[in-house]
Each structure stands twice: as structure tokens, then as C-alpha cells.
Amino acid sequence: MKRYFLFILSCPANNQLILGIPLQLTIYNLLRVKFISTENWQPDGDVLRCNKEVYGVEREDCVMVQGDGEVNYARLHLMFTCTAFGKVWRVAREEKDGQFILIDSIIRGAYICRDGDKTNYYFVNDLIDNDMYLRLGPSLD
């Protein structure tokens, strides 16, 4: 919970945060992300899930996240809203190192797979659809 407080305090959205107010958490397993496709400029969307057990297997979808001037990728471990300090925060926790990301910074879902036996090396599949191919095109140069 301490990391969560540090996350909220690092967000520049509200300067009137006051500590000592109780938190109300609501956990979600499904998220619908809407975005504008770069293929045809029409509205599109992804359904993202993070469940502890689906048919006996853990499911944690991956996402493309808008960072500070760059695009990052994350595997969703936990999604929740938190009502605290007079504001509703929509937050997701990343699997790898437990970092928190704002759900509003998620661009779209992404298909990411491991690079063989190497740890911490992944491939982003840009051939999953035309939108992903066009989004990743400039970063491949």
C-alpha cells in the first residue's frame, strides 16, 4: 500500500491531496480500451483481461502505454479504481516490477512474446493487425 501512496503523490493531477483519508478499492478483471485506428482513422477497441485463473491458467494481457514522450509495454497484473483524496483513480499494476500505470495512459492491447530462453527480452508482434504494424513502423527504423 505504501507504493500506492507514493504513486498517487507522484501524479501531478491534483495538488490538494491530503493524507489520512481512507481508501476505497474496486478490483476489475476486464477493461475495454477504445482508440482510433491508424489504419483507417475509425474508432476501434480492445478487450483486456487480467484474471488469476481462467480454465486453470493465469491470464495477464499486455498493453501499449504512453509514457513520458515514449511508448512502453506492460503486462497487466491487477486493475482497480481507487477513491481517495476526493478523486477517483483508475490504476493498473504491471506484472514485471510492480510499477503502477494510469489506465488512461493505455493506448491499446499488444501481443508480446518471450525471446526464446532469454529473460527480460520480448518481441512485440507488429503483424497482429494493420494498426499495430503502422504504430510500430516508425520505431523499427
Entry keywords:
single chain, 141 residues, mainly beta, SH3 type barrels, six-stranded antiparallel beta sheet, three-stranded antiparallel beta sheet, 11% helix, globular
Give the number of helices: 2
Number of strands: 11
Helix/strand-derived category reads: mainly beta
Order of helices and strands: HEEEEEEEEEEEH
Strand content: over 45%
Q: Give the terminus-to-terminus CA distance.
A: 41 Å
Tally of discrete structural domains:
1
- CATH architectural arrangement: Roll
CATH fold-level name:
SH3 type barrels
The residue-averaged pLDDT reads: 78
Overall 3D shape: globular
CATH class: Mainly Beta
Largest sheet properties: 6 strands, antiparallel
Q: C-alpha Rg, in Å?
A: 17 Å
Helix content: 10-25%
Low-confidence stretches: 12-18
Structure description:
The strands form 3 sheets. Strands 1, 5, 6, 7, 8 and 9 form a 6-stranded antiparallel beta sheet that branches. Strands 2-3-4 form a 3-stranded antiparallel beta sheet, with no helix packed on it. It is globular, with a radius of gyration of 17 Å. The protein has helices at residues 2-10, 130-136, and strands at residues 24-28, 30-36, 43-54, 57-60, 62-66, 71-84, 87-94, 100-102, 106-110, 112-114, 122-124. The chain has 141 residues and is mainly β. Helices cover 11% and strands 49% of the residues. It is built from 2 helices and 11 strands. Strand 5 and strand 6 form a beta hairpin. The chain has a single domain, classed as Roll (SH3 type barrels), CATH 2.30.30.
